[in-house]
Amino acid sequence: MSNHATVAEGRIHEFVTQSGADTIEVGRKLAGLLKPPQLLLLRGELGTGKTTLVKGIAQALDAADPDEVTSPTFTLVHEYEGTGDGKPVRLFHLDVYRIEGERQLETLGLDELLTGNSLVLVEWGEKFKSLVKRATGEIVITSAGGDSRKIRVSLKDA
Q1: Does residue 4 surpass a pLDDT of 50?
Q2: What is the pLDDT, as a whole number, of residue 109?
Q3: DSSP label at 49?
């Protein structure tokens, strides 16, 4: 189930999922809405399905099978090579939960990651003002009870 609305600052897409498989499917749909270069914040409590959503995005871009996509909690950055609209796309999945300050964040080389053909998805990015300021949108996942999730995607107009 999805609902699309246009707001002054961009576009909003809302989805409700009932399972991890549904969340992967929403990720596949979202891949078609994401046009590089983009930096998106992935927001949601632990276990709400942020990485599960990335599995669907990676699969839709032919960048990785869902079982190859894991949380970058300890490695901080995972990179996948794929295609979107027939063009090469580099998908970066970051988890900055363990990063403690802006200076440490700078060591990740975000400027080098965010090139013309990159989609950069950052878990816990809302912790850093610099990321919030640079983000071209955000994906917020909230639990709706049991395995149900509400997924709200806000994309700024380019």
Answers
A1: no
A2: 82
A3: S
Terminal alpha carbon distance of the chain: 26
pTM: 0.87
Cis omega (within 30 of 0) for bond into 66: no
User: H or E element: which one contains 111?
Assistant: helix 110-113
Statement: residue 55 has pLDDT above 50: yes
Copy the structure tokens of residue 51: 């990485």
Name 75's Cβ contacts closer than 8 Å, sequence gap at least 6.
Answer: none
Cis-peptide, bond into residue 72, ω within 30° of zero: no
| CA–CA dist 10, 131 (Å, integer) | 18
What is the widest separation between alpha-carbon atoms in the chain? 41
Residues in the chain: 158
Average pLDDT (9-28) is 90
